[in-house]
C-alpha cells in the first residue's frame, strides 16, 4: 500500500502528535499529505466550519462520553460525507464505543495512540473489502533504452495468457513509440493516449474499445506509433487506467517506458512486482543501484524489486558479470537471458514473441522462468487495493503528493 491520501490529524496529547508526525516516515505513507493540527476534536469543529475536509480525519478528545458524542455530532454537521473519521478518545467503555461506531465513525482508538495504532487504523479505514480490484500488477522497466524490457514484457504477458491461462492485459505505456501491437502483429484501433486525455470519461466501456488481441486471454493496449502534437498526460488518468484494467484481468503487465516521471515512479511503487531489466554494462549498473535503493526504501519490506539480465553474453570479454551486479546491488538476478539477435529479429518479423515462435530456445526458457516466478507471489495484493479502492470514492480533496 502506498497511500496517496490527504490526512488531517487533530491531536491533544504530545504522544499522539508525535505518532502522527512519525507516519510520514513509514514507506506506506510517503505519498500521503499529512497535516498535523493542535487542539483535538474541539479544534477540528472550528477548522472544518471554514475549510474542506481531508480524505481521512483523525481527532483526539479527552472529554467524557457525553462531551465526546456531542462534539462528534457537531463534526458530522460540518464535514462533507464520504470522509473517514478515526476517533482517539479517553473513554474506555464498550457501550460508548458501539454508539460512536454507529455514528459512522471508521475506528475508535484509545488515547494516546502509537504510530502502529494510527497506521493500522488508517489502513483498516481506507481498505475497501468490496473493491472490485483484483488483478496482480507486474511492471517492467528497462534501466537503459534498448535493453529489451518491452520484449520481455511482451513475452511474459503472452506466457501468462496462453500457458498459465490467466486473463492478462498488456499495457504498453510507451505511449508514443510503443511496440506491443507490432510485436503481436495487431492493428490498434486508436492509440492508447486517446483514452487518457479525459480521466472523467475513462471507464470499462471506453477502455474495451481500445483493447486489441486475438487470444481471449490476452488483451493489449498499445499505440500504432502515430505521433500526437501534444502528449500531456494526466497522472489520475494513468492510475485510473491501471485500476480499471486490474478489475477485469488476473494479471496486468505494464510495459513502462525508459523515462523518469512521477507517474512512472508511482507505478513502480504500486505494482505488485517491479522488474528491472538490465544489460551488463557500467551505466546499467549505476542506474540499477540508484533505482533499487529508491524502490527498496519506498516499496517497503517484502516488496523487493526484481532484476533480469538480458543480452547476457553480448560482449563476452568486456562485459561486467551478473555476479558483479548481484554483489553491488545485494540482489540476485532472477534469470539471465542470452543474446541472440537473429532469433529475436525473426520473431519480430513473424509478428510473434520468441516464446511462441521457438519455445525451446534458451531465451524462451529464461522468459518462462520469469513468468512462473511473477505469477507465484499470491494475488491480490492488499497494498495495491488500498490505493485502487480510494479512486472509487466520491470526489475528495486531491492529494498534492
Ligand atoms: N536477448 C536478446 N537478444 C537479442 N536481441 C534482443 C534480446 N532482447 C531484446 N532484443 C532486441 O533488442 C531491441 C530492443 O528491445 P526493446 O524490448 O524494444 O527494448 P526496451 O523496451 O528496453 O527499449 C529489439 O530489437 C529486440 O528484438
Ligand atoms: Mg520499451
Q: Which features does this protein show?
A:
Rossmann fold, elongated, 7-stranded parallel β-sheet, 12 strands, 2 domains, binds adenosine-5'-diphosphate, alpha/beta, binds magnesium ion, disordered C terminus
Can you put this structure into words, describing what you see?
- This protein has helices spanning 14-23, 40-50, 65-78, 94-102, 115-126, 149-162, 180-183, 204-210, 235-248, 262-270, 282-299, 322-329, 341-349, 354-357, 362-374, 382-390; strands spanning 6-11, 33-38, 56-61, 84-89, 107-110, 136-142, 168-172, 218-221, 251-255, 273-278, 306-309, 335-336.
- The strands form 2 sheets. It has a 7-stranded parallel beta sheet with strand order 8-7-9-6-10-11-12, sandwiched between helices.
- With 401 residues, it is an alpha/beta fold.
- The protein is built from 16 helices and 12 strands.
- Helix 1 (14-23) packs across helix 5, helix 2 runs parallel beside helix 3 (65-78) and helix 6 (149-162) packs across helix 15 (362-374).
- Residues 142, 149-150, 174 line the site of magnesium ion.
- Residues 142, 145-151, 179, 258, 310-311, 337, 339-341, 344, 348, 363 line the site of adenosine-5'-diphosphate.
List the helices and strands and how they pair.
Blueprint: E1 6-11, H1 14-23, E2 33-38, H2 40-50, E3 56-61, H3 65-78, E4 84-89, H4 94-102, E5 107-110, H5 115-126, E6 136-142, H6 149-162, E7 168-172, H7 180-183, H8 204-210, E8 218-221, H9 235-248, E9 251-255, H10 262-270, E10 273-278, H11 282-299, E11 306-309, H12 322-329, E12 335-336, H13 341-349, H14 354-357, H15 362-374, H16 382-390
Parallel strand pairs: 1-2, 1-3, 3-4, 4-5, 6-9, 6-10, 7-8, 7-9, 10-11, 11-12
Helix pairs in contact: 1-5, 2-3, 6-15
The structure holds adenosine-5'-diphosphate (ADP) and magnesium ion (MG).
